[in-house]
Structure formats: structure tokens, C-alpha cells
Amino acid sequence: MKRAAQAAVLASALGSGGLAAAAPVAPLPFDRILRYPEMTALLQQWEQARPELVHLQSLGKTPEGRELWFLTITNRATGEPGEKPALLVDGNMHANEWAGGVAALHFVRKLLDGYGSDERVTRLLDTRTVYVLPRMTPDGVDATLEQGRYIRSVDRPYPTATPEPGIHPGDVDGDGRSLYMRFRDPNGPWKAYGPDPRLMVPRSPDETGGEYWRVLPEGRIEGYDGVTIGNEPDHESLDLGANFPGDLGGTVSRTNGPYPTSEPEVAAYVAAIARRPNIVAHVTCHTFGGLVLTPPVNVGEKLPVADGQVYETLAKQAAALTGYRALSYLDLRSGADREGFRPSAFGWIYNRRGIYSFITEFWNPLKAAGIDLSNTLESTWLWGFHPVEDELKLLRWSDEELRGDGFVNWRRFDHPQLGPVEIGGFDLIRYYYNVPFDRLEKEVAPHSDWLVLLGLSTPRIALRSFEASAVGPNLWRLRLVVENTGWLPTNGSQQALDQQAVGEVKAAISLPEGAKLVEGQASQSLGQLAGRNIQRSTASWWGYTPGTPDRAFTDWIVEAPAGAKVAVKAGAERAGTARAEVVLAAP
Question: Fewest Cβ atoms closer than 10 Å to its Cβ: which of 131, 226, 543, 560?
């Protein structure tokens, strides 16, 4: 059976407004990271191929004139985007974390390519809306691709345009990478490791008389006095994730920006979220660590019990599909870092808006190299608390699986300020922050499956019945039965209720000309309807909720002649809208 015929048969079976795919969906390349013009062209091709499913718009322009592309994906034949519960996905909040943006794009293509042939994808787009911001910092991503150096989010100087004294990382030898520099110093704290001198290891506390080295990031030294080298605070310290509104915990940080939403990318994104009250869940795609992170971020932040249970269930499903570790952001933090306050996008999206928000950290090079992390955290390992044998495993992994590309052998270079140095070491940007291209698609694909599941977990208002019965001459009782067919309750999260960020389910009746409402309000509140998430176990008294907490009804008495048509709708911001009509028939 041809694909178009398959799509038509499936759409008919689903009772949906299914669309037969008339044009092929352009593939997403995985052998490179798309520059901004190429990504723009691809998004435009996708919209042209699936105009009934996807709408591409700009949320605004970056300071360098790039559009912030934003996609709305749903089957409009089954309802307007704003009248369906929604999932929001973003990528590249951080500039070097290229795989995050690739993951967001992979999800978009999965939806567009799978509609009409994949039952779950088709059901998702028939009943829900998906919003995607694939590249939150297009300026930053292109800068990292061009300059080969680390940039947190954007290459805009902050807090001052004047570089402060110290080492400024960057590609000084012109090979397109930003690595390490080493040079000999009798008082240096490092030495070459005997079994493999490519590795630099610390001197022993009592060690003297050997050949020792200084190790610096590859780069130039601002304000060099010929003797001392300072550790310059990051000249481009802005972190878009820390620029969201929310509690800043009384902290002052270079990463936050001068005030919440001071950065145009964040301001545009926050406004877009605020204009879409139908958003129930959000996932932001980052690297690295192989982790699915949930709130809380800081000590003292509380999760309502119901939300904690939802997070645990959904994060475990993500972990099962991706093989990643699921834990809270707070549990990832260790040592003194755990006690400090860290602002994040969670602070507004979940804490204030009550939108279930997740961080996916793609890719774990340590696990890829066979390093055992069962008794530690990735964050602890990264602070240097690990044995040298782990670094030998990374070297072997680079030699055997990456053809030596993950570790660049030291080579002599005449630095314009330091004189003779050697440049080399682990390529942290390409192989820590990012997935090798030959395994990139395999890494992100399971996550797209989880996003489909997450989208289908949202609440959904449905009309179980709308019936009229005669109660007198030209008098009719109209009964509407509403139910939530989704897994989550109609409010989404308990936090949304606590923050008064979501309204109740409402039912409204529309009468034809000449009809009169005799009893009942034209618009009535039905409260909140439970989802299936509260049903956990029948092996105890407390693991399930009996009855019909997912259902409600309302009655009206209407005076109208037989044959009149009465319409009704019911809905909630985060559970969608459903409509029905009934013709008043004589008994």
C-alpha cells in the first residue's frame, strides 16, 4: 500500500482530520551542525512540505539580525493550536551545546514525517499542539562554529565591554579548535604522566626535581605584564538560562544579566510562553551528562507531593527510553555548590507558571569511554575528583573510536606573548559538549520518542455526551457531560494551582435566535478534573482513587421550539476545548 493511502486509511480509522503526506520532508543532516542560513532554509522547506501541520514564525530578531524561529505544529483540521494542550521544546539555550539544537530539530522532523503513518505521532498532532524553539541563541551557535571556542550563550561582552586582565580562551594557532597550552616552568604544578606522557597530572605534595609545566586554556593574555597570568572572569558571561524571571535568591552574578529578560532572546521567548496559556509541559535540550533533570534546583525550593510523583514517573520513562540518569538538579549539585543559590529557567517556567519543565543533558563521553560512574556524580567527576585511570580510558576511547580526534597531541607553537608553548589536549568542545557525528542521530532519536509520550501525557477535555430531553411545551433540559481523557489533571500541575496560573474547566452554552435560558448560567465552572496519574496501584487502599474524579456534568433548562440547534463548548487553558451541537427534537 502506498504511503498516501496508508495515511488516509489511518486517519479514517482514527476519526481525525488526518492529512495524506503530499510532499517529502527534507532530511535533517547529522554529519555537521547547520549554520543559521542552512537551518533557516530547512525550516522553510519543512513548512512548505507540511503547511497543514506546521507554521513557522519569528519571535523577533537577535542583536546580530537573526530571526528567532519558532514552530507551531498541530493538525489545524482538528482544532486551533491555542485550543489544544501543548508541549514546548527548545534547544541551544547554550551556544556550544550543539546536540541540544539537533535534538529539537530531530523531534520536529519526526512529527512531520510520521504524521499519517505513525499512530502515536498522528494522535499527538490531532489532539495536542507542539511548540518548538530549535535555536534560542542563533548568534551564539554561529559564533562557536566560526571561532572554535567556548561561549556560554552569546558572544556579547558583559558586564563590561573592556576585557579584564587574564587569560582569554580562543583559537590562537588557527586550527579551528580551542584546546590547552602548556609550557615548562620549574615551579609548575603539573607533570607528564609516565605511562602516557600525553596526560598532565598534578605533582605529588612532596615532589621536587622533575620537569614541570604550567597548563592554561589556549588563548591570549589580556594585560600581560610578562610575569603574572590572571584567571580573567568570563568576558561573555551571560547565561540565557539565568536571565529568566523568577527568584534570584538575593544573589548578584555575572551570568544573570543586569535584570531578568534583559536579553532580547529571553524577553521574546518569555513573552511567547506567556501568550500561550495552553502549555502544560516543557523540555529544554542541552549537553552534556546523559541526564534528565527536574526541579528543585536550590535548597529550600519545594515541590508539591503530587508534582513530585508526576516528575518521578515521567523522568523514569525518559530514562528507560534514553538510558540516561533521572534526578533533580539539586541532587546533581555537590559540595559547596549545593548551598549557593542558582537561578534557572525552572524558576519561572515551573516555580511561577506551573509548567512541568525538564532539562535533558544529552551525551556522556565518560560512559562512552567505559568509565564507571556508579558511585559518583558526573558533576563530582568534572571537578577533578577521579583517578588517572579514568583519563587513560578517555585517551584509549579517543585513539580507538575517534581515530585520535578527541585528544590532540601536543605540538609546538610560538605564542605571541608567552613564546614557545605546546598546544593540545582533550577537545572538550567537540567531544565533551557534543556527540561525535557518527553517533549523533542514534543519541537523540530515543528522546524524540519520549517527547511524543510526554505530549500525550497532557490533559485533554472531551465531551462524553450532550443530550436534550423535553420537560414541557418548548422546554428542554440540556445535559452536558465533560471528562478529562488525559493522564494529567486539567490544571496540569499542582504548582499551577498554587501560583494561580491556571483557571478551572468551564462549560458555556450558545442559544439560537429566539431561544431563552430559563435555568442555569450561560457559562458555568466545573472545577478541575483529575487525570489517570492518580491511579497507581490496587495492591493497597491508598494507591488508587475510586469513582469518577475525571468527570463532571452540568444542566440547563432552555425554552426553544423543536428543531432549534443549541451549541456548547467546554474547556480549560491547559486541557483544550471541545464543542458539540444538539438539535431539539419533538418527543
Answer: 226
